[in-house]
Amino acid sequence: MHPPGSDVVVVRHGEIGVKSDQVRRKMETRLAGNVNSLLADRDVDGEVDRHRNRIFVHTDEPEAATAAATDAFGVVSASPAVTVEPTLEAIADALRDATEAHYDGGTFAVSARRAGEQDAHPFASTDIESEGGSAVWETIESMGSEAEVDLDDPDFELFVECREDEAYVFLEKRDGPGGMPLGTQRPVVAMVSGGIDSPVAAWQMMRRGCPIVPVYVDLGDYGGPDHQARAAATVADLARYAPSYDLDLRIVPGGDVVAELAEQTTDTRMLHLRRFVVAVGEAVARETGAVGVVTGEAIGQKSSQTSANLAVTDAAVELPVHRPCLTMDKTEVIEQARDIGTYEESTIDAGCNRVAPSFPETNADLETVRAVEPDDLFSRARVVAGEAEIVPIDTE
Ligand SMILES: Nc1ncnc2c1ncn2[C@@H]1O[C@H](COP(=O)(O)OP(=O)(O)OP(=O)(O)O)[C@@H](O)[C@H]1O
């Protein structure tokens, strides 16, 4: 919902604001670039402008530009707005127009804030609220409704942000993902299995600024083309958030190793497999300059993900294994997968075979696992990582 004549999107960021001036400038520049890429990728007209702790998108497509801006990591909220002169008269006019266009009954409130020099305007934000409130009141009455103010929980809220040279009037603050601008951290390798959890974990790392290098381990007879296609589809969903980053999927041929593990190991099988998977991730990280490996594991979600078993998995690699879903319940992960748009792809039936043994070890001890593990597991992880096929991701 936007006021008539909306010509700009006011974009707010959060944590960047507490950084030193130099870091903040760098991060804002990155954020502005990322918003620009999202607009271009979606064919939305818009000119991105940085100004005093805010990013503005000047556009004649306010809804589409707001949707693009609220997909940029680092954005806390964005509002499609109409720009007016910073005078009480011009602001009141815009509030009247917005009310006529969108008021649909119920209580209302006008919330105003002024930014910049305190003496830049001959009025205070409370003056905007009282004069603007009167204008809205009269408009509602002239529309044949009974006007009523509710400052705590209004049905219809109008916002004014008044700066030195311009004021903006808007009707909503649409949430962005928050976090930090993508590209302000070093990349991490994202192990994507095509399940529900791993795309959520990868997205969470992106949200904190890390570009991802997506990797799928082809499980051979235990995976199959549908399983692989599902992983690629979830990466395509993630790529929509990062149009200027390379999210091509590395498909690592792990089928022979998985088949051997299935044949030669029993209760500790899933631990060897997990250790192999993260070792593949570490090998890709070394090759690509990434500084960690991210997985979708959560404590206790599966037998291989008990706190004891995660410790055994971690011991396979030197780089940190990041697990943003670690303490989340499955229902929370599912909710988030739905929110970010990866849920549907990750629940397509891929009909793969079961690798897990009937009685998996849940309280593994590193020495015991090492004693029964193939000696060449990690050297093979490095070899197959080097043989990865790089598949371009189609976001259409
Ligand atoms: N074939 C694979 N290729 C790449 N990474 C994988 C693969 N299988 C598992 N992983 C990684 O290991 C983690 C744990 O694997 P597990 O098999 O328990 O999860 P899953 O149920 O298959 O998938 P998800 O955790 O995504 O729901 C995954 O979240 C993913 O990060």
UniProtKB/TrEMBL annotation:
Keywords: ATP-binding, Cytoplasm, Nucleotide-binding, RNA-binding, Thiamine biosynthesis, Transcription, Transcription regulation, Transferase, tRNA-binding
Pathway assignment: Cofactor biosynthesis; thiamine diphosphate biosynthesis
Occurrences of domain Sox C-terminal (ranges): 1-109
Catalytic activity line of the entry: [ThiI sulfur-carrier protein]-S-sulfanyl-L-cysteine + a uridine in tRNA + 2 reduced [2Fe-2S]-[ferredoxin] + ATP + H(+) = [ThiI sulfur-carrier protein]-L-cysteine + a 4-thiouridine in tRNA + 2 oxidized [2Fe-2S]-[ferredoxin] + AMP + diphosphate; [ThiS sulfur-carrier protein]-C-terminal Gly-Gly-AMP + S-sulfanyl-L-cysteinyl-[cysteine desulfurase] + AH2 = [ThiS sulfur-carrier protein]-C-terminal-Gly-aminoethanethioate + L-cysteinyl-[cysteine desulfurase] + A + AMP + 2 H(+)
A GO biological-process term: thiazole biosynthetic process
One Gene Ontology term of the molecular function aspect: ATP binding
Chain positions recorded as ATP binding sites: 191-192, 274, 296, 305
Compartments reported by the entry: Cytoplasm
Gene Ontology CC terms: cytosol
Main location: cytoplasm
Domain THUMP: 63-173
Family matches, as HAMAP family: ThiI (MF_00021)
Assigned protein family: Belongs to the ThiI family.
Name recorded for this polypeptide: Probable tRNA sulfurtransferase
UniProt source species: Halomicrobium zhouii
